[in-house]
């Protein structure tokens, strides 16, 4: 059978998974089959090239991925099909394939689907060399009920470059995937939710992973729900798709954790991602970090604290994340620390105000509690852009809206500023610029002392010493 030169689009019914609208190329070749009822032998070859004789273009359906300068050759040698080819990624890098499929049982007269599924892979591999990609992770949800999404899709694409080799052994029906890939400059964004266990029945083709390794080099980024982390480590996959086991221990280099009222800077720790078919996906974290918060103390005074936190739990279930820590100055209890970073005091204060009889007091309380919370997302982003530890909008019935911001210049040395947004009556706009220092000491007395120098709208400068304690 002589194919001549035929446009790729003429083979649309055989090319499942290829986006023909974005693909371009021609197929040419010649095939032959000889034999009798005791068996058949194949002969011939075919190739895929661009219409100009150079490389063609293959686009993968359902993705933005496209292979350019693609060339492929298929050879039929008695009882085997041999495939070789190479292509450039549309974003950079190369990919090469070598495949050897033994069809002896099928060609000896057993023309059944089972015989075709028993065809074995010999020396089959897919090699990546700095192959760049940018794709959104999209997970099917086979157990979706009415009104639930059929897919869980990440909000941003996962990007990076891959190098390594994927080897195939086993048969067409049960291919065994071995080898490994190394990712560089990875920026992985996971979907906001994962499918529950449940299945779509037995798979016609059920690949099995045999210690397949995916390694993330230092500097890789993982974005999961409330956390962004720079980390490194390796994921090992074992088992079939119908019973896949994932184990991914990572070492965290740095990152950030967004809590209801603060942003925690992560310093070090570990993340262990595990998942199994029919089981709950988990991302167990054990992280150390710190954040700087400003809390309102007695007498309307504000105190800036450095909170040293330990965050543990399942990251895919934010309600299960546990927070422990200490404050600097050390006059906050663990309950107060959790309340500050979790915004529990907002709800409790609002309830307390609602039980009162003074409507104006309730309105003032709502403003004083709601304004910092409702503007927290915007002020956090602006603080990050300005390289500040915190930036907040505050409100009280006497001074109106107040902007506050600050930065820890070095351990224990803080520069902070506050200013009224609008003038109240004929009074001048209030502002304060303050430089304060708290000695980094474990001494029970000295650790509660703070020395400061500041300037306000009424005083060119003032010097003060404060000391706090708990009663």
Outline the fold blueprint.
Blueprint: E1 2-7, E2 26-36, E3 39-49, E4 56-59, E5 66-78, E6 80-89, E7 94-102, H1 104-107, H2 113-117, E8 120-121, E9 124-135, E10 138-140, E11 151-153, E12 158-170, E13 175-189, E14 208-224, E15 227-240, E16 245-259, E17 262-276, E18 282-296, E19 302-314, E20 322-328, H3 334-342, H4 344-354, H5 359-374, H6 376-385, E21 390-396, E22 400-410, E23 413-420, E24 431-437, E25 449-456, E26 462-467
Parallel strand pairs: 13-14
Antiparallel strand pairs: 1-2, 2-3, 3-5, 4-5, 5-6, 6-7, 7-8, 7-9, 9-12, 10-11, 12-13, 14-15, 15-16, 16-17, 17-18, 18-19, 19-20, 21-22, 22-23, 23-24, 24-25, 25-26
Descriptive terms for the model:
471 residues, 18-stranded mixed β-sheet, six-stranded antiparallel β-sheet, 26 strands
Alpha-beta classification? mainly beta
Mean pLDDT: 79
Shape assignment = elongated
Q: What's the tally of helices?
A: 6
Number of strands: 26
Radius of gyration: 32 Å
Strand content: over 45%
Helical fraction: 10-25%
Distance between the termini: 94 Å
Largest sheet: 18 strands, mixed
Indicate the low-confidence ranges by residue numbers. 343-371
Describe this structure in words.
By secondary structure, this protein is mainly β. The chain contains 6 helices and 26 strands. It has helices at residues 104-107, 113-117, 334-342, 344-354, 359-374, 376-385, and strands at residues 2-7, 26-36, 39-49, 56-59, 66-78, 80-89, 94-102, 120-121, 124-135, 138-140, 151-153, 158-170, 175-189, 208-224, 227-240, 245-259, 262-276, 282-296, 302-314, 322-328, 390-396, 400-410, 413-420, 431-437, 449-456, 462-467. A hairpin with a 2-residue loop joins strand 22 and strand 23. Helix 4 (344-354) packs antiparallel against helix 5. The chain starts with a strand and ends with a strand.
